[in-house]
Amino acid sequence: MVDRLANSEANSKRIGFVEACFGTAGQPLAIPGRVLIGEGVLTKLCRKKPKARQFFLFNDILVYGNIVILKKKYNKQHIIPLESVTIDTVEDEGELRNGWLIKTPTKSFAVYAATATEKSEWMSHISKCVSDLLEKSGKSPTGEHAAVWVPDSEATVCMRCQKMKFTPVNRRHHCRKCGFVVCGPCSEKKFLLPSQSSKPVRVCEFCYKQLSTGATLPSHSDSRHGLEFSSNMSDDDDEDDSSD
After folding, report:
1. Nearest to 148 by CA among 187, 197, 111, 97
2. Residue 179: which region, alpha, beta or left (left: phi > 0; alpha: psi -120 to 50)?
């Protein structure tokens, strides 16, 4: 069905509409063989708090952005190649329900749908697109993925030293390797993580020692959210997506 839609006029119009919504600040999305599978609003778990984001699933990429005017204007476009994506379900907790992790070597984060049915449909379509891409390319699924950042609200003290309390003066930082919320003294080092950045990025003291010696880093989990924390993160500063 995807192949049949690839060169259809309806598909071209839909992709053109998405491009128009992002305006000149967005990247061109129309290329031969690309099909818009579906779209919708998902809640993305950002550093500060959960935020609504518009997502577009194509047969080869996942695109999302900030909602300026719903169905009319979006900004801060992000494009994720599906070949590098793996997904895992997230257990429901409180108001955060119907969620799953979108994991890539450069960036990983949790998203939440409005209903369990929507979650199932999104995960099913993403998995099918990834599977089809890997089958066509002959590549293997991505083994390494970036850390899912622990939200700021989950840490009142440094997750490494367990002593430093966060205040307007003692700011929170995130280790790009493990995703933990750490204090300044515990994250003074930087290390080159090629999958994330061409220059060294902030890591905590624990991860720095492990990376420097070539030791295998353990994964970390938060049982309250069903989130897995392991590997890397992308942005160069301490803000996720600048506004997140």
Report:
1. 111
2. left
d(CA 23, CA 94): 37
pTM of the model: 0.81
Report pLDDT digits (tens) over 152-197. 999 999 999 999 999 999 999 999 999 999 999 999 999 999 988 8
For residues 210 and 218, give the distance between their C-alpha atoms in angstroms, rounded to a whole number. 10
Q: Is 121 helix (H, G, I), strand (E, B) or coil?
A: helix
The tokens for 113 are 């749908």
Torsion-angle region of residue 29: left (phi > 0), alpha (psi -120 to 50) or beta? alpha
d(CA 91, CA 19): 34
Q: Say if CB 126 and CB 119 are below 8 A apart.
A: no
| Nearest to 21, CA basis, from 82, 63, 83 | 63
